[in-house]
Write a structure and sequence with these properties.
Strands 2-1-3-4 form a 4-stranded mixed beta sheet. By secondary structure, it is of the alpha+beta class. The chain folds into 2 domains: 75 residues, Glutaredoxin, CATH 3.40.30.10; 122 residues, Glutathione S-transferase Yfyf (Class Pi), Chain A, domain 2, CATH 1.20.1050.10.
Amino acid sequence: MIFYDCSTAPSPRRARMFIAEKGLEIDIREVSLLKGEQLSPEFLAINPSATVPVLVTDDGTTLSENLGIAAYLEAAFPEPPLMGTTPQEKGEILMWTAIAEMQGGLPVAEALRNSNPHMKGRAIPGPANFDQIPELAERGMTRIGLFFDKMNAHLEGRDFVATDRFTLADITAFVLIDFARVVKIRVSDTHPHLLRWYEAIKARPSAGL
């Protein structure tokens, strides 16, 4: 297998953590988003959507989304289980993964990509260019605060986001919450339950990759 990565971006970090938690060693190819390598003809031939992560499986299948990569690796390497072992667990894990993506990750992306001068004309990832909308940046900042509040309330008395063990939902929420630092928002003691969980996940070896 070949894993196309970018060490500075949150989306491939999610896949890196998943791969590490599975104990897998996969050939890694770095794609520099800063240098625009995702828009090169060579990479567009691999993923026309011009995004990372990408996993090319042993049989040549190209998977370009985190959920697809995770589902494939979970099926191919079921231990340790990171996406649930019962119908209830599977549903809960994917539910909280979606909540983290839509209510946490998307607002951070909106706040960053619609305010950072280096992303002028590149407000949405991919091969097409889009102008920044300042109002989306403002809305994103408000939504990040609401997401932190929601997660803090949810994690009271809980060690993990979904089920009673570490799962894909924890990976997703951790990476996206940690990435909020790019818009100068960090977990603090104003959200004590979220902070306790965040520090515990941060201490895992996979979080340092």
